[in-house]
Amino acid sequence: MKIDLLVHLFEANRNKENAIPMQKYMKNHFPFLGIKTPRRRELMREFFQKSGILKENFQTDFIEVLWELEEREYQYAALDYIERSIKKLDKHHLPLFEKLITTKSWWDSVDVLAPKPIGKIAANFPEVIPQTIKGWAYGDHLWLNRAAILFQLKYKEKTDAQLLYDYIVQNKESKEFFIQKAIGWALREYSKTNPDSVRAFIESNELPKLSVREGSKYLY
């Protein structure tokens, strides 16, 4: 099985010394094998070459198995696979990504899922925005809120500014660091494309200080 090949590659590269600081960096939310990103990417290239999985249909079962495994590198492997399979995604995969956002949730996974696969799906199938992503923005799940704010992060001139601002206004009263930070990040990124619009939005809305500081980085 493909999963066995990947586990074999990763287990052979387990490093307890690396694992300790990696776990601390993620606030001890997850155990780690201790495989740093450059080495993990090498192992993933080897896995893709040996398994041939990239030549097959998108494997949702493969992702779900990886998400259930204990060490965080297996979730990173799932994200690596998703990124390499972006062109195979359609709107029917959105429930899977919602599940990944709300399971073993932390910024390291959400910040890959939101602007990359989810952003791509929303660009290709914009009907999912009112059908699904709007509910994330207006709901009470921290990480879905963050994903809704960030899914347009790479849209540049294709950003729906009013939608972005609506989602920010909906969440601007949040005391959550990760929401305030997401607001600032989204505004900062869009300010590279439309600084006047972002400046006007910041000046006309009472936003958290952290969001203003982050969002204004390229404006003044």
From TrEMBL:
InterPro entries: ARM-type_fold, DNA_alkylation. It comes from the Bacteria. It holds the Pfam family DNA_alkylation. This is DNA alkylation repair protein. The lineage of its organism: Bacteria, Bacillati, Bacillota, Bacilli, Bacillales.
